[in-house]
Amino acid sequence: MNGNRLKIASLGIQHVLAMYAGAVIVPLIIGGALGLTAEQLTYLVSIDIMTSGVATILQVWRNKYFGIGLPIVLGCTFTAVAPIIAIGNSYGISAIYGAIIVSGIFVVLIGKYFGKLVRFFPPVVTGSVVTIIGITLVPVAMNNMAGGEGSSDFGSLSNIGLAFGTLLFIVLLFRFSKGFIRSISILIGLIAGTIVAFFMGKVDFSAVMEASWFHMAKPFYFGMPTFEITPIITMILVAMVSLVESSGVYFALGDICGKKIEEKDLVKGYRAEGLASIIGGIFNSFPYTTYSQNVGLIQISGVRTSNVIYTAAGMLILLGFVPKIGAITTVIPPSVLGGAMIAMFGMVVASGIKMLSHVEFASQENLLIIACSVGMGLGVSVVPGLFSQLPENIRILTENGIVAGSFTAILLNILFNELKIKQKKPDIIGEPKAS
């Protein structure tokens, strides 16, 4: 019995380690970009770890109303990073959490009908949106590689050396390792880079020393949420893209576990993600989605039992109540973080391109959808004042690159693929067009 418990515990730790880097780096990036204090950043990391555990339990616990019941681990979606930073800089931190709460409620309400909306989010749309999100994140990584915007040693050789050294270490580790070590290569790279930075005098442990050993989660830690139209639209779009991604993970896990995924299972899975986002908004954390790296771990280990995931979720919740552990992650220098960000944000772009690989590129319409949406998203991000002279109610759809690019992709897909004339011949005879 004890041997079995030990095995379950060790497998649970593996799942925590596999998703830990992704779970902590999101609040570190967002908190750094929004200028949070060390104390606030420690809270943000700790509460994110805790709510990841709560969100995972909501998804694994299969009941009448929510929870798909598959061995899924949830964490903050990377697709939310750039939108959250943009919202925080333009509308304040309170608007972030108002938008997250509303997007969570939206997902819970439309979960039953989302299967019918999926047709408006084919690979040509989701691939374009995820690619835009990844591209808009890259400048954040580059600023961190140089030492963090506004730092006294911005662009110094020591910062550049640390950043590229961390990135090179991650690449080499990924290239020459296998299995579990490969799956946590980002985490190992961050630890190695921080150790080197310590000997260079770039690591400050004061935040760890000042952090308490235990704290309670506080609803609305950063103040009461506010509700602004643009942030809400932005987070709803992020949530819908996240649901499309999650659907793929559900089917992949169903195949691994030998379980047929039906419409009612998808609905309960969507509702669990919506509830997780509502909880994230209330406790000033983030929207949550399925973590594909843990799916890979299940495939490698061959262990598909829910007990292991419940154990991992319990560990995450316990870790979230210990601020000292959360504070340890805040000592990672910006340049080390920046090196790892290039790999991770590049993977977001690569994920978008992978989604686009399912698109029929023989279709000129699909090429135009991708070209216009990515061009619009990147253009608005680079030149945010482009539409500053437009009326405010129109700027809602144009002032954010991700929203502008997403709406461009959705509308052009409807125009070219949903409303196309049935009798229209494909561009290449004998090859039917697909979206």
From TrEMBL:
- Which superkingdom does the taxonomy of this entry point to? Bacteria
Q: Where is the signal peptide?
A: none
Q: Which UniProt keywords apply?
A: Cell membrane, Membrane, Transmembrane, Transmembrane helix, Transport
Entry's localization field: Cell membrane
Q: InterPro entries annotated for this entry?
A: NCS2, UacT-like, Xan_ur_permease
TM spans, by residue?
12-35, 68-88, 94-114, 121-142, 154-174, 186-209, 229-253, 308-329, 335-356, 368-390, 396-416
Chief location category: membrane
Family, according to the entry, reads as follows:
Belongs to the nucleobase:cation symporter-2 (NCS2) (TC 2.A.40) family.
* Full protein name: Nucleobase:cation symporter-2 family protein
Provide the species name.
Cytobacillus mangrovibacter
